[in-house]
Amino acid sequence: MKIRKELWFGFSLMGLIILAAIAMLVGADKITNGHIGLLMLSLVVVAIMLGFPTAFTLMGMGMIFTWIAYEENTQKTLDLMVASAFKVMSNDVLISIPLFVFMGYLVERANLIEKLFKSLHLALVRLPGALAVATLVTCAVFATATGIVGAVVTLMGLLALPQMLRAGYDVKMSAGAITAGGCLGILIPPSVMLIVYGATAGVSVVQLYAGAFFPGLMLAGLYIGYVIILAKLKPSMAPPLPEAERYVPLPPLLEKVAPSHGARALPTLLKALKGQRNAEVPTGYLLKQLGVVLLPLILFVFVALASYASVTSVPPVDEIPAMEVETTTDSGLAEPPGGEEEETSASGLQEPPGAEQEKAEEASASNVAEPTAAVAAAADAPTSKPAPLSFWIGLAVGALALVVYYALLSFTRLEVFKMLLTSFFPLLVLILAVLGSIVMGLATPTEAAAVGALGGFLLAAAYKQLTLTVVKESVFLTAKTSAMVCWLFVGSAIFSAAFALLGGQELVENWVMSMNLTKTQFLVLSQVIIFILGWPLEWTEIIVIFMPIFIPLLDNFGVDPLFFGLLVALNLQTAFLSPPVAMAAFYLKGVSPPHVTLNQIFAGMLPFMGIQVLAIILLYNFPGIGMWLPEVLYK
Questions:
Q1: Sign of the alpha-carbon dihedral angle for 136, 137, 142, 143
Q2: Which SS3 state, helix, strand or coil, does residue 518 take?
Q3: Are the beta carbons of 591 and 233 closer than 8 angstroms?
Q4: Looking at the predicted structure, is the pLDDT value of residue 48 above 80?
Q5: What is the DSSP string of 245-290?
């Protein structure tokens, strides 16, 4: 029986782990509970690689080794299990997971991805490697809306891969674009992985979402830039589409109005309202088309007015409360006996009768006058201020872009814009509503997830896909995924408690601290370990097993857990793109034509893994990419 290369790799890796564990035990002067904890860690990794369920492996190993740590005390072991499970189930952050997952499954079943891919493909048709670029953009948008890697990769494998292969695209580049784009849902909010990390590390999920926004866009932009450059340098790998593929038919009524497909839409429609063609085309239809054409202008005017009102408004001055008049009788303080007489005798002068009363009245009048003057000043204060120069520059740039847009808007592009209106913009509004409400502090992640679930429900209804079967499937898959995540958390809590009880955490900390690493060396070491762990393990195992080991070390090196989480989130993209596990490759292989081999898919993913490493380096050298938005919004 011939064993595949992937199995040889997996068995070899397991053998190395077991040999390392044995060498650790043999080489130790004295075997302590900490060494037993590291042995437990090694056994868990091997058991998961053999295919045992992760959650129950963690729980089983945790219970066995907790029993050993408590010196075979069964009662304490069971108490720890119950306490760990209760701690996880009472975590409010986890409520958002089933809601986000439900939103994703509903959006997936609304059949938006086919319309989205087609409209983006036609909108980006003039770019080199247009099909691959459209694939990456579709994956980024759809992954943001769903966050379900397997669903995105599978659907894009069914939809985009055949089209790219028919157009003569290189198999490796096509497979790499689909798998890399599908994995963006791990990083780009609303990501379930960020929720899991936040709950594990005790970091605000809101700040994680804000921090992951720009790194996610950066990674997607690097993918797109790589594809465009490769297609430009090697056109044979991504040949331009023929004219037949770029043709967009016009509706029959619009054919009567348009002199040609390339004619400018706005002036032609305005002329048609008063011209002879209006006799053949209803005025209502022309006004409807004109309304679609003017939508960007209307949106621009609305945003410009709202921005102007925001930058020119002056916050009202709070009303100053009336100051209390201080008198000697109210103050509770009195001159010491004889103090006044001593003062007059020393000075040799004496106030005329009634002078003290006049001074008190003057002081009282001045105290009352001060708040009155302040209130009058507040009433006279300006209610607006001039708009800053940056506003006018932005307004000019926007107006110029709008002029260029209408100068280039042909009837063909108008049809593509309509397709985007029915596929891209509904998803964009849903994403902005969910993420915007979280990042701007209008809603908690759980509340925003509920809004997202309602939005997914309404989208499915709007596209006439909301059937009883769809709802049942979505609910079932949501319950299945949520149960998996929650059991993982329970298993992780029990495992982490056992590891800490055995002293494994202390042993690891002492080992790391004994190396006298700098902050940079520690970050490089931790990211290399996570990168290697991404080969045999998925991101769920890495987060729930190894993050509780890394997190306590961060304070020793002055590393912000939020920044560390962003580095880990970028790094964990490799968990779906690294052989031999590389689940994205298996998802794609399951729906690809027979002549597309698994080795070709793996080879196509390697350049995108290199781009991920580049993204990690960029984020480390320029931490503002991830930290700027959280600092602006929350600090």
A1: positive
A2: coil
A3: no
A4: no
A5: HH--PPPHHHHHH-SSTTSBHHHHHHHHTTSGGGGTS-HHHHHHHH
Q: How many CB atoms lie within 10 A of CB 308?
A: 15
Q: Give the Cα separation of 48 and 39 in Å (integer).
A: 14
Look-up: residue for tokens 């290399």? 528
Count of alpha carbons within 13 Å of 238, Cβ hemisphere only? Answer: 26
What pLDDT is stored for residue 301 in this prediction? 92
Mean pLDDT, residues 370-395 taken together: 69
Q: What is the rounded distance in angstroms from the CA atom of residue 161 to the CA atom of residue 177?
A: 10
Break the chain into its structural domains and give their ranges: 1-89+473-501, 91-245+418-466+562-635
Length of the chain: 635
> Could you tell me how far CA 70 lies from the centroid of its own chain?
41
Does pLDDT of 287 surpass 60? yes
Q: Report the candidate in 6, 174, 2 with the shortest Cα–Cα distance to residue 599.
A: 6
- Measured between alpha carbons, how far is 211 from 565 in angstroms, rounded to an integer? 9
Q: Could you give the CA distance from residue 289 to residue 595 in angstroms, rounded to a whole number?
A: 46
- Tokens representing 69 are 């740590």
Task: Mark out the alpha helices in 445-553 (DSSP H runs).
Answer: 445-462, 468-501, 504-514, 519-533, 539-541, 547-550
Stated as kind and residue range, the H or E segment containing 424 is helix 411-439
* pLDDT over 80 at 541, yes or no: no
∠ Cα 626 632 635 (to 5°): 105
Q: 3-state class of 410 per DSSP?
A: strand
Three-state secondary-structure class, residue 384: strand
* Residues in a beta bridge with 313: 384
* CA–CA separation, 416 and 629 (whole Å): 33
pLDDT above 50: residue 237: yes
Task: Please check the confidence at residue 370 and state whether its pLDDT lies above 60.
Answer: no
What does the pLDDT look like over 89-109, one tens digit per residue? 777 777 878 888 888 788 777
What pLDDT score does 397 carry?
92
Tokens of 536: 């045999």
Structure tokens at 349: 């002068």
pLDDT, tens digit, 9 for 90 and up, residues 445-462:
788 888 888 888 888 888
Residue 595, classed as helix, strand or coil, is coil
